[in-house]
Amino acid sequence: MRVVVGLSGGVDSAVAALLALRAGHEVHAVFMRNWVEEDGSCSAGDDLVAAAAVADRLGIDLDVVDLSREYRAQVFAPFLAGYAAGRTPNPDVLCNREIKFGRFLAHARRLGAERVVTGHYARIGPGPSLLRGLDGDKDQSYFLHLLTREQLAAALFPLGGMYKAAVRRLAREAGLPNHDRPDSTGICFIGERDFAGFLGRYLAPRPGPMVTPEGTVVGEHRGLHFYTIGQRQRLGIGGRRGAGGAPWYVAAKRPQDNALVVVQGADHPLLLASALSTGPAHWIAGEPPRLPARLAVQIRHRAPAVPARVREADGGRLEIAFERPVRAAAPGQAAVLYAGETCLGGAEIEAVQTVAAARRAAGA
């Protein structure tokens, strides 16, 4: 079978290509250039050099496809718009749907490929369905929850049944030149950066007050888009008389008056969510399971999936009530739903009911 592997320069995609070759596939490699700076420079130079070295070692052809225009329009622009609106979007989710399994898949088919191969830690089950990767620390099904069955049917995830340590060992044994290259982190295809500094190049500062839930002003923020719910670092709130020594955290953003609400203590009731509501859900199977149902819901990559009662509301939206509170849920994040190891789909969080709000409602 002819397959195209997305070779990124990292060890995961390199081993995915190796395993595709060992499975007897005809393998062609493509490096996606998805981010170009506004001055025309490309920050992916080292990645391309690493990808070329891997392709040479494996004896496969490597092409480069420039998808930077599509990435800016379909991933980066919505990402900026979400932050500007006070939300917490996840660009990796859109990147997988629109770029890796959208534009890249279309490019691979033009090259005559039957499947695309990636280094994702996820598995494809019957249906096809999306299953968690065997390595729980590396599982990436959360980022893939917007895929369709058609996209899954065109994909191969050779690393889904492996642990990262085994991937590194296999790369070393095979003599892959990037076997010890550090894992990439940061924004999808943009990389690891000073996030606030990077965001500040596109969104202007809009200072406002940092306030306690009681309305006391304790500092000034640079702009709501520079902060995330649950953030502790870089708040600039010093010791305050009568406040005690507990650390401060971002608990809420109030765009209506440009206020950033901060609280003390990691388990403050305003940081804990008992329920949330979402926008219209995407279901990988094309239709929802029988609802209401008890499902596991994950609100961040590597956050634990928490049992919850999920019911459908108007317009395909979801109402989710957790069996135990979750920390730092924020509008814009993805709430991804699981039945056992199977990822069913997910939806964008629209509103959060905190434990504090639930207590007030119960006492009303």
From TrEMBL:
Active site annotation, chain numbering: 95 (nucleophile), 188 (cysteine persulfide intermediate)
tRNA-specific 2-thiouridylase MnmA-like central domain location: 198-264
Cross-referenced InterPro entries: MnmA-like (IPR004506), MnmA-like_C (IPR046885), MnmA-like_central (IPR046884), MnmA-like_central_sf (IPR023382), Rossmann-like_a/b/a_fold (IPR014729)
UniProt entry keywords in alphabetical sequence: ATP-binding, Cytoplasm, Disulfide bond, Methyltransferase, Nucleotide-binding, RNA-binding, Transferase, tRNA processing, tRNA-binding
GO biological process, one term: tRNA wobble position uridine thiolation
Cross-referenced Pfam families: tRNA_Me_trans, tRNA_Me_trans_C, tRNA_Me_trans_M
Cellular localization per UniProt: Cytoplasm
CC terms in the record's Gene Ontology section: cytoplasm
Predominant cellular place of this UniProt entry's protein: cytoplasm
GO molecular function: ATP binding; methyltransferase activity; tRNA binding; tRNA-uridine 2-sulfurtransferase activity
Domain of life: Bacteria
E.C. number: 2.8.1.13
Region described as Interaction with tRNA: 138-140
Region described as Interaction with target base in tRNA: spans on this chain: 90-92
SUPFAM superfamilies per UniProt: Adenine nucleotide alpha hydrolases-like
Binding, ATP: 6-13, 32, 119
Reactions that this protein is recorded to catalyse: S-sulfanyl-L-cysteinyl-[protein] + uridine(34) in tRNA + AH2 + ATP = 2-thiouridine(34) in tRNA + L-cysteinyl-[protein] + A + AMP + diphosphate + H(+)
Site (Interaction with tRNA): 120, 333
Ranges for domain tRNA-specific 2-thiouridylase MnmA-like C-terminal: 276-349
NCBIfam families given in the database record: PRK00143.1, trmU
HAMAP family, per the entry: tRNA_thiouridyl_MnmA
Family indicated by similarity: Belongs to the MnmA/TRMU family.
Alphabetized PANTHER family for the sequence: MITOCHONDRIAL TRNA-SPECIFIC 2-THIOURIDYLASE 1, TRNA 5-METHYLAMINOMETHYL-2-THIOURIDYLATE -METHYLTRANSFERASE
The protein's role, per its UniProt record: Catalyzes the 2-thiolation of uridine at the wobble position (U34) of tRNA, leading to the formation of s(2)U34.
UniProt name for this protein: tRNA-specific 2-thiouridylase MnmA
Lineage: Bacteria, Pseudomonadati, Pseudomonadota, Gammaproteobacteria, Chromatiales
